[in-house]
Amino acid sequence: MKSPLQVRPISTTEHLAFVEGRESVSFLQTPAWATVKSEWRGESLGWFRGDELLGAGLVLYRQLPKLRRYLAYLPEGPSLDWASADLEQWLTPMAAHLKSAGAFGIRMGPPVVTRRWNADTVKAALADPVLSRLADVPADHSNAEALAVADRLRALGWRELSTDGGFSAGQPKYNFQIPLADRSEDDLLAAMNQQWRRNIRKADKAGVVVSRGKRQDLGAFHEVYRETAERDGFTPRPLSYFETMWDALTAEGEERLRLYLAHHEGDLVAATTLVQVGTHAWYSYGASTSAKREVRGSNAVQWQMMRDARDAGATVYDMRGITETLDEDDPHVGLIRFKVGTGGEAVEYLGEWDLPLNRALYAGFTAYLKRRG
Length: 373
What we know:
Elements: E1 6-9, H1 12-20, H2 32-36, E2 41-49, E3 52-63, E4 70-74, H3 88-100, E5 103-108, E6 113-118, H4 119-127, E7 141-142, H5 144-155, E8 159-160, E9 174-179, H6 185-191, H7 194-206, E10 209-213, H8 218-232, H9 239-252, E11 257-264, E12 267-277, E13 280-288, H10 297-311, E14 316-321, H11 333-340, E15 345-349, E16 353-356, H12 359-372
Helix pairs in contact: 7-10
Protein name: Peptidoglycan bridge formation glycyltransferase FemA/FemB family protein
Pfam family, one: FemAB
GO molecular function: aminoacyltransferase activity
C-alpha cells in the first residue's frame, strides 16, 4: 500500500525544476508569477510521497481587511494528477496545509479540458439564430474523465464558481487556441478565414515590419497600450507592472516572455507580449493605435507570434479568453468572431472551484464580491 501524500512548502528552485520537467504548466503557476502579483503573498507548494516530488502549485494568499485570514488562490492550478481516481489524497492535505496557514477558503482552476469545438463548428453556430451560447453547441471532442473530476470535486465539498458569459472572477473558462504541432506555415494560413489571410497580406504589402522588443521598449508598448485602454474602455495597468513582469519571467528563462513591435514607416502601430512555458504559448497583452489601422499591424504581429511560438517548440498558441456568447446583439460576440478567423478551436476548461474552510468568513467574502461586482 502506498504511503499517503504530504504537502509542504518548496523552494523556488525546486518549484522551477518541477515546472521545467513537465511538458507545460500554466505561466500563472510558475514561481515568477508570485513576484508579478505583489499584492498577494506567494507560496510554492509540493506534493510528496517520501522524498519524491509528484506535484506542485503556486498559492497566492489575499488577506482580508483587518484580519489575518486569507483567500488561497491557485490560478490555473495546481499541477497534479487530475486523472487520479482518488483526488482526495491530493486535495485533502492541501486544504489542511492552507487552513493551517490562515486560509478561510481556497480557489483553484484545475487545468482540465472538458470540451473542444473546431472553427467550422463555431462558425456554423454563429450563423445559427437559434443558438446563443457555446455551451449549447454539440462539441467536436468531449472529455468524459473531466466530468468525473467535477463529480469528485463536488463530493469533496468543492463548489464550481458561476460564470458570466464564460468569465468568472478569476481566469476564463473558455479560451481560443491554435494547434501548432506538425503544421507548416502554409497549413496555418490555409486554416484561417479569407479576412485573416487578406489582412496578413495587406500588412506585408504595406511594409509593416514586426520585430522583437527589449525591456527598454516596454515604454513604447505601454503608450500604445494606454491608448488602447482609453479607446476600449478598460483600466490600464501601470508601466511598472509590465517591467516587473518582464524582470520576473525572463529571470526564469530568457524566452519566457517576449515583446513584439509592429512598425509602419517608423510608426509603432501594434505591440504585444507572448509568454511560453514548455510547449504552450500564450498571447498575453495586445495593443494597437487608432491611426493606420488599415495597415493591419495587429494581424501581422499575431502571425509573427504564431510562427515564432511554433519554431520555439510550442504545440499550442493560446489566444486566451473568449466569452461563450453567440448572440449577434451581444457586444462580446466580436471577440469570438475575431479569434475564430484564425482557424483554431474553442476550448472549455473545468472552470474555477472554491472550497470554504471557514463558512462564515467565506460567506462574507462572497457577499462582498457580489456587492463590488
